[in-house]
Amino acid sequence: MRKPKRKLQIIAANCIACGRCEAECPFDAIHVEGDVAVIDYDECTACGKCVKECPTDCLFFEGEEAKAKEEKPAVAADLAADVVARLSQYHGVWIFVEQSNGEAHPVSWELLGKGRQLADTLGCELAAVVLGEGVNDVARQAGHYGADKAYVIDDPVLAKYRTYPYAEGCLKLVREYRPEIMLIGATTLGRDLSGAIATDLHTGLTADCTGLEIDELTRLLRQTRPAFGGNIMATIQCKEHRPQMATVRPRVMEALAPDESREVEIVRETLEINEQDIGVEIVEFRPDADLDKPNLQYAEIICAGGRGLGTPQGFKLMAELAEALGGVVGASRATVDAGWISHDYQVGQTGYTVRPRLYIAAGISGAIQHRVGMQTADTIVAINSDPEAPIFNIADFGIVGDLYKVVPELIKQAKEGNLKEKLLGDGG
Ligand SMILES: Cc1cc2nc3c(=O)[nH]c(=O)nc-3n(C[C@H](O)[C@H](O)[C@H](O)COP(=O)(O)OP(=O)(O)OC[C@H]3O[C@@H](n4cnc5c(N)ncnc54)[C@H](O)[C@@H]3O)c2cc1C
Q1: 32 — phi, psi (to 5°)?
Q2: I want to staple 110 with a disulfide (CB 3.0 to 4.6 A). Which of 122, 131, 249, 253 is the partner?
């Protein structure tokens, strides 16, 4: 490595060992040892990232000591201590449990599964936030799926979702009990609610996370999501505001198996809002199920077609295969953009995230934006005429060939034999 032109220095007495420099350093060149950060000059490139990140200005480049001292390190340290003291009032991982007519959205249980891991790593409590009317059962179920505690607001004004009373309910709970982390499902409701809450709390919100982990050094939530059109994965941290908020799409995380013997501690709160205070009235509610839309997210078997189908009629073949296997049709964005099928069928970054037991991809190249939506399927079968197609890298079974020859054969086998069982490797 070329010797850097400037040399990093540290005022050890001012270091609060917060670990931010270590977390930011792209070269693994600075480490907190005991109560001070130690620079590894063999690795340091003097890029300056740690200098910018240091909250007490104890890092500086040689020759710039005066500037570092001028920054009144004592005041800077007080400020940092103030931030640390403020943040330390926040404890616990919270999951917003989305429910409709007393039935929870499965994404809530998936988030409790992830929340359990995060809470165990942090050594803190996992709590569910349950708002609605007549939601005691939902709160109890939250315990079955991993919650230690459920904060419940049961009120007629919460019978159907409206932004204002739901946001007010969540804000009241957050301000009173101060969670460190709050996760919400990236559903239509969750996207609306999370933005309203984060704005009011002046905290950060990372939408559509695909990964959530605790940084062991700083205890911050590492929130990973695709960025720049899905070409890179960005890890985002909310360092100075609480709660750290993130949304996660359905089927990205895995729910724990429910344990009905698990008890949950219920904390009841009230909401002082009258119907007259709410400027929105719900006239009619039509669930997706009534609109004849496919339930892709929770389908067990998906037979997806891509541009390789060549024409919109190709989806008739995919529908025939789906019917023979007892599944539903899915699609790549290229086919949706071409107008061959509606967006309700699109799998991927800008479509649905799915986690079926069996995913058959016919004539789909396997672009990263498609893969992020389906790669957690238990079994992936890829059919493509190009042996180099990236979809084969994640396929459990790869068939190189013309889909118009392969798919009819699969349909025949599905109708006559036990293709499903063979592909799933079990009796189901
Ligand atoms: C911001 C952004 C978001 C996106 N979101 C999504 C998303 O949500 N979902 C998504 O799918 N894409 C998404 N895309 C688009 C993505 O990058 C790809 O362009 C798209 O997935 C390609 O679709 P495809 O695989 O059907 O088509 P292609 O990439 O054109 O692949 C067609 C495949 O069919 C094969 N083929 C051709 N003829 C046959 C045949 N007769 N038999 C067998 N195989 C054949 C070819 O070898 C080829 O591999 C997004 C892109 C961007 C920039």
Answers
A1: -80, 120
A2: 253
